[in-house]
Each structure stands twice: as C-alpha cells, then as structure tokens.
C-alpha cells in the first residue's frame, strides 16, 4: 500500500515526499532507540529534516544510499524485492520506497527503533512509545510553510 500512497501523492502535485515507517528493525542496530534513521535522495530536504528534528528535540541520522546496494532489491519473482535484504536493511528499505517517488525530493524516516524504547537503560529516552517522527513532521511543516514560495 505504501508505494501506491506515494505514487498518489506524487501524481497530486506534491513537491516533496516524506514517509515514516517502521520497515526495518535493522534501524535498531544502526542507530538504536535514541535516533531515527533517515534515507533521502535530496540533501536540501534532509537538511530541513535535520533542522526540524533539532527544533523538536529529536535525533535523526542520515544513512547513505549507495548505488551498488540496488542489487539487493532484485528479485527472481517480482520487479522489486521489498523484504529480507540480508544487509543494510534500513538503507535498502528506504531505497525500495524511493522507487515510487518519481524523482521528487524525498526523505524516509525509519522509526522502527525510535518509535518504541523497550530498554530501560537510556537515560534520555523513556521506556515507552516515544512518538518518534510526530514532532519532526510538525516542525518540518512549520519550517516549510515559513519559506517563500
């Protein structure tokens, strides 16, 4: 459903696309519960997300998109594989979503790890649902609304 939602947004004159999903539990390995992993095709949009996260008091860490990782999306049975990448799961999960943005500036926030802290050992992150991404989206919307058109 996610791909069709993104394609719909792109077809309805969206200028930027952002998604928040818990696609890859591997984000927990990459950044832990204290940050949201980000994958983006646009440096300027990613910088805005970084600023929005800072204003919201949240942490975001951008992961790279490496062209040679695209082989991990290949499938013997379908046009694209969207699961069990075997490695670089947060990155390749984002790269899967990128296939549907039709070249628009896009950012994927992998909230699989940051949306729920099930460990009690982080002093600044409560052991509970965190609302990860929500504050970032609000701040991002405010930042973008304040920009001249």
Overall mean confidence score, pLDDT: 83
* Tally of alpha and pi helices: 5
CATH class: Alpha Beta
For the CA atoms, what is the radius of gyration? 15 Å
Total domain units: 1
The computed structural class is: alpha/beta
Proportion of residues in extended strands: 5-15%
CA distance, first residue to last residue: 31 Å
Name the CATH superfamily classification: Zn peptidases
Biggest sheet architecture: 4 strands, mixed
- Main β-sheet, spatial strand arrangement: 1-4-2-3
Shape: flat
Uncertain segments? none
- The residue fraction in helices comes out at 25-40%
Spell the H/E element sequence: HEHEHEHEH
Q: Tell me what the CATH architecture is.
A: 3-Layer(aba) Sandwich
CATH topology annotation: Aminopeptidase
Key phrases:
flat, Aminopeptidase, 149 residues, alpha/beta, 4-stranded mixed beta sheet
Structure notes:
With 149 residues, the chain is α/β, with parallel strands linked by helices. The chain has a single domain, classed as Aminopeptidase, CATH 3.40.630.10. It has helices at residues 2-11, 27-31, 43-56, 89-98, 134-146, and strands at 17-21, 36-40, 60-62, 106-110. It has a four-stranded mixed sheet with strand order 1-4-2-3. α3 packs across α5 (134-146).
